[in-house]
Design goal:
Elements: E1 2-4, H1 10-21, H2 26-52, E2 58-67, E3 70-80, E4 83-90, E5 94-99, E6 102-104, H3 114-131, E7 138-144, E8 149-152, E9 160-161, H4 166-173, H5 182-193, E10 226-227, E11 232-234, E12 241-243, H6 244-258, H7 266-273, H8 279-289, E13 291-293, E14 300-302
Parallel strand pairs: 1-2, 4-7, 5-8, 7-9
Antiparallel strand pairs: 2-3, 3-4, 5-6, 10-11, 11-12, 13-14
């Protein structure tokens, strides 16, 4: 049973918005690509679990927890009868080498050993579970789900699951079909309640409202939409079509995410969307979906 689905990282969402509307620095372009690749791998893993795992489980994705001032990130937590599976998902691609404790590729001689991160996460999770009086063991696994990944190593690491081992690993998981009682659900609620939400804004390049290109970006490829007909906008690059109302609402959400302190008015949304040439259309959409505050020309809308 999926308890907490995986949201798209907000910093990734914001970087995609900014990348569409300005030239972002090269280090942020690399960060965007890394985050996107990692998220795609996590989505692939989530789908694999959803399609193959039985219902006698509690699955939590994407937790940021803290124990004694030490934060640790959990990709996926699977709670089974008297055991917890800790999964760290890696979307690595290409040939990797493992010599002793060192990981490297032909182009990168120093790669952080992901087993170290997994071990740290396991240790902190066990301590937190002990504090919560939950003493069942944690079984950690490093999941490589990209079929284009290969690791050259002479050692046998039980914590690593390679792409060719995923089906066998799933059969192992499904071999524990014991229905869980309320105590396990209480543990899940406790862990989720401890999830930390960090601000994404320190990880973004600097930007201002005036320097961003105005218009409505495509929800699929992040190109700018143009008119298809009176009621529909179209992306000339990928062919995506979207109703005007939906496009405006998406743009309002984007504007509010990029500029949380901005007051949402008809005029600013009209300027932000750019392609919508009718203030009346903007006002109609805002009035239909948001609460209007004030009755003068200085009125604005509450957007959450």
């Amino acid at each position: 049973m999926l308890i907490r689905p995986r949201p798209e990282p907000l910093v990734l969402v914001l970087l995609k918005f900014l990348n569409a509307r300005m030239v972002i620095p090269i280090d942020h372009v690399k960060k965007l690509k890394t985050l996107q690749k990692g998220y795609e791998g996590e989505q692939r893993s989530d789908t694999w679990l959803k399609d193959n795992l039985t219902d006698n489980w509690l699955v939590i994705h994407d937790l940021l927890l803290e124990y004694q001032n030490s934060k640790f990130q959990i990709d996926t937590l699977i709670i089974a009868y008297e055991k917890i599976y800790l999964l760290d998902i890696k979307n690595f691609e290409g040939d990797y080498h493992m010599d002793g404790d060192k990981w490297h590729t032909d182009t990168n001689p120093n790669i952080n050993n992901p087993l170290h991160q997994l071990s740290r996460c396991e240790t902190l999770l066990l301590k937190l579970l002990h504090e919560l009086r939950y003493e069942h063991p944690v079984e950690p696994h490093l999941i490589f789900n990209n079929p284009e990944f290969h690791l050259y190593t002479t050692s046998k690491h039980l914590a690593i699951v390679f792409p060719t081992q995923l089906n066998r690993f799933m059969r192992k998981l499904n071999a524990r079909p014991v229905k869980l009682n309320n105590r396990y659900f209480q543990l899940v609620e406790e862990l989720i309640s401890r999830h930390i939400v960090e601000s994404p804004y320190p990880n973004l390049p600097s930007y201002t409202y005036d320097q961003l290109k105005k218009g409505i970006v495509c929800p699929d490829c992040y190109s700018f939409l143009t008119y298809f007909n009176k009621e529909t906008l179209c992306c000339e690059k990928c062919g995506c079509k979207e109703g005007v109302d939906a496009s405006v609402l998406r743009s309002v959400k984007e504007l509010k995410l990029l500029f949380p302190d901005k007051i949402i008015t008809t005029e600013i949304v009209f300027d932000w969307c750019s392609i919508i040439k009718s203030r009346k259309t903007i006002r109609r959409v805002l009035s239909r979906h948001f609460k209007k505050m004030g009755t003068t020309c200085a009125s604005h809308y509450e957007v959450y």
